[in-house]
């Protein structure tokens, strides 16, 4: 299946993505999913997260503005998602910046089966044991051991790992792919990584068998779709402000053919 045809699946199926995300990006993540053609819902109450996760096509967890209530909500939702076969995508925002965030990410990873772990290269470096520095929620220096550590982590946890930045890396524990689309404006707005995680949730929500290889394909397609849309948006944006709006428009208008034409994906 071509990378672009994954977008057709998303638009045809309009998967419901249950997001437990942060206070900064809630609105933009929901609008990003709508522009793409997916269906967002944000739900946090302990009384309903298990029910919501069970009827969703995917569960996207984001540690951006973590607090103890959210930690419990994520635990309840993840348990229900695993029980009902709903794929989980985790964005460990700021893992490595404080022990609380790192511990929360590790508890989710150890206690549940993730479909995809997606963070910036520093967050992924911290969680996979490669090391790296995290400055608040932004990436610092990435580790030179990142690729090996990602592959070992993916194998051990039977999951797909995605590390983003100027170049993006994806592995299912066997193959490693390097993705080279995107635009520096993405690093000049808040929430690009968080929105991408929600988008990965939409793509993975179209996969109905628990298959790491298909999850990897979905992740590659999601990152490439998002980043090619960003390139198209940047072409007529005056700066980060208009870029943010233009990105929503580009996600709405982009075609599978445009994605396939611009995709820069290679196996390492
Ligand atoms: N310098 C860059 N050039 C091109 N694309 C980038 C650049 N920095 C980040 N991106 C893209 O921005 C998105 C968010 O990645 P990143 O900034 O690593 O995550 P986060 O916002 O979680 O720190 C990804 O799609 C990534 O490919
Ligand atoms: C600024 C900030 N602070 C807590 S969460 C958040 C948003 C982070 O978004 P992203 O990781 O996509 O840049
Ligand atoms: Mg992030």
TrEMBL record:
<keyword id="KW-0479">Metal-binding</keyword>
<keyword id="KW-0418">Kinase</keyword>
<keyword id="KW-0784">Thiamine biosynthesis</keyword>
<keyword id="KW-0547">Nucleotide-binding</keyword>
<feature type="binding site">
    <location>
        <position position="164"/>
    </location>
    <ligand>
        <name>ATP</name>
    </ligand>
</feature>
<dbReference type="GO" id="GO:0009229">
    <property type="term" value="P:thiamine diphosphate biosynthetic process"/>
</dbReference>
<dbReference type="GO" id="GO:0004417">
    <property type="term" value="F:hydroxyethylthiazole kinase activity"/>
</dbReference>
<comment type="pathway">
    <text>Cofactor biosynthesis; thiamine diphosphate biosynthesis; 4-methyl-5-(2-phosphoethyl)-thiazole from 5-(2-hydroxyethyl)-4-methylthiazole: step 1/1.</text>
</comment>
<keyword id="KW-0460">Magnesium</keyword>
<feature type="binding site">
    <location>
        <position position="191"/>
    </location>
    <ligand>
        <name>substrate</name>
    </ligand>
</feature>
<feature type="binding site">
    <location>
        <position position="118"/>
    </location>
    <ligand>
        <name>ATP</name>
    </ligand>
</feature>
<dbReference type="InterPro" id="IPR000417">
    <property type="entry name" value="Hyethyz_kinase"/>
</dbReference>
<comment type="function">
    <text>Catalyzes the phosphorylation of the hydroxyl group of 4-methyl-5-beta-hydroxyethylthiazole (THZ).</text>
</comment>
<dbReference type="InterPro" id="IPR029056">
    <property type="entry name" value="Ribokinase-like"/>
</dbReference>
<dbReference type="GO" id="GO:0009228">
    <property type="term" value="P:thiamine biosynthetic process"/>
</dbReference>
<dbReference type="GO" id="GO:0005524">
    <property type="term" value="F:ATP binding"/>
</dbReference>
<comment type="similarity">
    <text>Belongs to the Thz kinase family.</text>
</comment>
<dbReference type="Pfam" id="PF02110">
    <property type="entry name" value="HK"/>
</dbReference>
<protein>
    <recommendedName>
        <fullName>Hydroxyethylthiazole kinase</fullName>
        <ecNumber>2.7.1.50</ecNumber>
    </recommendedName>
</protein>
<keyword id="KW-0067">ATP-binding</keyword>
<feature type="binding site">
    <location>
        <position position="42"/>
    </location>
    <ligand>
        <name>substrate</name>
    </ligand>
</feature>
<dbReference type="GO" id="GO:0000287">
    <property type="term" value="F:magnesium ion binding"/>
</dbReference>
<keyword id="KW-0808">Transferase</keyword>
